[in-house]
Amino acid sequence: MPTAFGTDNPSHGHKHPQKFPRLSKPVELLRPSYDILVIGSGYGGGVAASRLARGGQSVCVLERGRERWPGEYPRTLPEVSSNLHVQGKLTTGNMQGKYVETGDSLGLFRLHLGDAQNVFVGNGLGGTSLLNGNIFLHADKKTLSMDDWHPDIKNNPEGLNKYYERAASMLEPSPYPLSYPNLAKLDLLQTQAAALGWENRFYRPPQTTRFKDGPNSTGVMMRASTGSGMDSTGVNDGSKSSTLVNYLSDAWNWGAEIFCECEVRFIKKAPQGDGYIVFFAWHGSNRRVFGNTFEQSLMWVHAKRCVFLAAGTLGTTEILLRSKQHGLPMSPAVGTKMSGNGDILAFGYNTDYEVNSMARTHPDSAPPVGPTITGIIDCRDQGNPLEGFVIEEGAVPEALVSGIQILLEGMPEKIFPRQWDLAHRLRYLISSLRSGVFGPYSSGGSVQRTQVYLIMSHDSNQAYLSLNESGRPVMQFLGVGASKRVAYLNEVLAKATNGVGGTYINNPFFAALGEQEITVHPIGGANMSADGTADRGATTVHGELLTGSGKEYHHGLICVDASVIPTALGVNPLATITALAEHSVEYVAAKIGIEIDYETKNGLLDLFGPPAKRLPLTPDLKEAIEIIEDAKRSDNASTEFTEVMEGFIHVGGEIEDFAVAEGAAMGASSSARFFLSVHGWDTDTFTHRAEHRAMLTGTFSCGALSQDPFMVLRGTFQLFNDDPRTPDTKNIAYDFDMISTDGQMFHFHGYKVIDSSIAFAPWRTWKAVSTLYVTITHLKDNTIVGRGVLRIAATNIGNELASSSITGSSLTSRARAAGLFLLYFILQIAKFFFAPFTSLVQPDVFAAEDKHKISPAEIIQIVACDGVKTTLRMWTPVISKDATQLQSDVPILFIPGAAVDHNIFAAPTIKVNAIEFFTTSGATCFCVTLRVGKTAVAKAGWTTYDARLDVAAALNHITGLYPPGTKVYIVAHCIGSLALSMGLLDGTIPAGSIKGITASQVFMNPKAAAINMLKAKISVPFSAVYGSLEGQWFSCDSSPEDSVFQKILNQVLRFYPVGSRKEMCNSVICHRCELIFGRLWNHHNLNSETHSRLSDFFGGISMRCLSHLVQMGTSGMVMTSPPLSLSTDDTGTISSRPLIDNISLARLQHIPIFFFSGGENNVYTPESTDISYTTLRNKFDKGEYDRAVFEGFGHLDCWMGERAADVIWVSVRAHLMRVCDDGDWVDLTL
């Protein structure tokens, strides 16, 4: 005997805080592909899932409804009403009906309206087995021998007995026990059988209700029936053997993965020919509020081997018809020859007997109602099987009990007893009054004296299902209620009712809506073919879907529910549905080489724990499960919402600009859309952790990339995360891998930019939160597939808000989570909307010396001719055979500006800094820190003119390291470039030692930018004011120990002119640097880390040095230093002498110089380099000079920006290679 498979812990359910088990998984844990896909979870679906999982296959079950367990089923009328979905044509008599659809599409109850007959079915994990009457009866042999059946069954109906027995071994049916309390409704039915002369046809049928506590066949603990009679709305006492507690629990234990709220729409063959693609609409995260998008942007899953359709007669037929519309060939018989199984519902009102057929949740204090059906009058043994029928008693669910009296007494066409004397009339009236006054459960009242009848018989099998112009199902059961057979059966029931003193009342649909019946047993639609061809049916005897061409069928596409039954059965169909499913699954499994383990028994299952078998986990699945489990353990509420963004994606990687890519895509009609649900499993984590991460699930559609939507599973959504590329910027980021139906895999990266550009601008704010910049790459090699822009349409704003929901264990936790999320969102937006008023960010204390990416090979102290000591750093080259390598080791001297040092060239915060760039190009790099730079000696009041001596000392030291005649290439920035020009012009620096120069931003003609020029024209210079208040040193840094003046200054600088809104930030150092020098960068060129660590880069400046710079910036030329006393001439200007004349300019001849400026420089205008460039070009006709302006760059971002290497430094290197190799002239702007 095989060993037990499960757990034997009898207290399995009591050690878990979770109240109800859950077999289903969140859709976020869906895999893109499985061996077997099962659509629906009723009897057929349960069989397929259980058996194929036992066959070692990866099995996925998709169920449209929700998962509910005993204790969760609706009981009261409001609960039932909120769980009702109504769909179909509402017709009255011969009037043309209007199509209606209303109610909860995921509700437990579905009422389909059709012509002449309406259908009531269940909707949830377990299908209609959650709501049926549980009666397990074989179809009679005469019915199975009718010509409608395939010869394999018609000629050998006993062949199904094996499968009936297999079904019974799982469902464990048994009759209502004789040892149980007598049931009034059961006794009355027996009395009525005798009165009709059919006492020998009465018996207690086997039913799948448990009458004892203990584990069932699958190992699930069950409870004995309390006799509530609530079967038709869901039994909450744990006694109902729905597929949830047997087949589906077994499938779960053997590794099947079950997903609810997934409405399958259609099926297509997989593009690669391996199986099928099943498209479904996921109802989670309130996605249905998006209307057409919900129905068009469908999710999908790939079935590699088989798809088993078990969505119920109507569900399976609808899926097939829609699949046919999408190109799946099939027989024209699909949707035809359907049946309502001859169902009739009726009432025997106010009989002479106490019936007790009104269900109640807690019948302990009263006689039990019993299960809904406990007795049967079986009249199937007729000469003509079409004349067979069964009569069963029933029960009215508690939700309808309170209104049943008014409903029944208001119905037309009642049939009263023929001989009704005064005593009977008086008893009838008193009983009616008793129920009206004391309630429907009062003993002796008319309601408690009401018998409920359920008939199953045969009809004409002429119903059909079609799809209307909107793709909605429409049913036609024409003539069912008006048939002679129905009239006869109504006469039988009227006779049985009148015989016990009651009034016969047909079902409300029949009586009020023009002879319309209601069925709970729809059959057919994908009927098995009577001869195996598509001419006489839709499926083979084993449920395989015929293609429409003879006996050809779709391999691996199998129907296993009531849709395959070709005729009414005249009895409850659950046993036959299950047996046929067992028959089909066994056959298909054997045909494709799957060996099903029918023998191994489960132990006692712990439905709160893990199953015995699980499919292997991919890394992303493992991570997602950990996130979900952590959230469950925390018991914090979750946050969900769904978003639709639409726009255009240009396919191709040649366009880098998003706006240009969007325009190109619009021209090519390359539209795109995503339909994504965001799930923050733990709102506390979502809002408080640094990554602010949630999970993305849904679809991405772009016809230029795939004809079908891409599946998005376990993507990452990040809300207001710091943008590492740009300071004081937040991103709302979307990152996910996506897979197409043909197996292509791409990565989607999108981000929304939230920055200070939205300050005080509602329209800009909306634009920022609704515009997504998208890059799509190949998953394998990261090459660009496409770029573009997606936006939230105004029409979807309301839908997105409507989709938002908070899920938690209590009202308190949900309210708290809603508050947390809303507060977090508002505060983040407010931070940028009110940017100038947000908290200032003080600098972090970092030791830049300890943060080197590339350490200098040597740090050298050099001494200028006036005795001032400064520092020279050296980095050795990295030699390779790259084409960008210099032909020989070239020494490069980098000269930084004021208040900074080597770190602007060796920035540890960017991916590649300038020192790394040029050492990997084969150069030996040096960098001198000037006496006006970030050094202690700067406080002595040195000027740029003085700093030329440091340049001369550095140059002298470097040339001394090399053979005589070696020349040095110089890269000089800002004040460093001014100092270099000064030394060259006055002869302090020997021009013969220089191979070439890159002059960054300025050279010998500094022209202050507008804001700096404005400050210079103020009658009382800033240097004078500041010097009188705080001394002769201005620190770019700040600390909590600053003086009151410095703290006030920091607050005032919030509103200092910065340019456009997007240049606003909350960094104290950035503000202070801007006050002294002007805006040093375009913020979008600095990454976040660089901006947050500005204290690593900046020191300060003396007022004397600042005054000298102001004087030169306003005069437009370099000058000598002012006197140490800061004395002024008669005009009030500090005394200095211009350095530019014909003699000094002659010293610059024969030095190749590359001038460049940032196009948006707010320190020195780009005209500064233009004047110097033009002057030298005009002066020396054969001089080798070039100039470039780099748009989108400012000042220091040309050296500290992430993009500088690809845009600027390559031009510097090109100039370096040309002057060192004496090559041809090149265009350095390329």
UniProtKB/TrEMBL annotation:
Residues 1-20 are annotated as: Disordered. Pathway: Steroid metabolism; cholesterol degradation. Its cofactor is FAD. GO terms for biological process: cholesterol metabolic process. The keyword tRNA processing does not apply. Residues 122-145 form the Glucose-methanol-choline oxidoreductase N-terminal domain. Keywords: Cholesterol metabolism, FAD, Flavoprotein, Isomerase, Lipid metabolism, Oxidoreductase, Steroid metabolism, Sterol metabolism. GO terms for molecular function: cholesterol oxidase activity; flavin adenine dinucleotide binding; steroid Delta-isomerase activity. Its EC number is 1.1.3.6, 5.3.3.1. Residues 1-10 have a biased composition (Polar residues). Pfam families: GMC_oxred_C, GMC_oxred_N. Belongs to the GMC oxidoreductase family. This is Cholesterol oxidase. It comes from Piloderma croceum (strain F 1598). The lineage of its organism: Eukaryota, Fungi, Dikarya, Basidiomycota, Agaricomycotina.
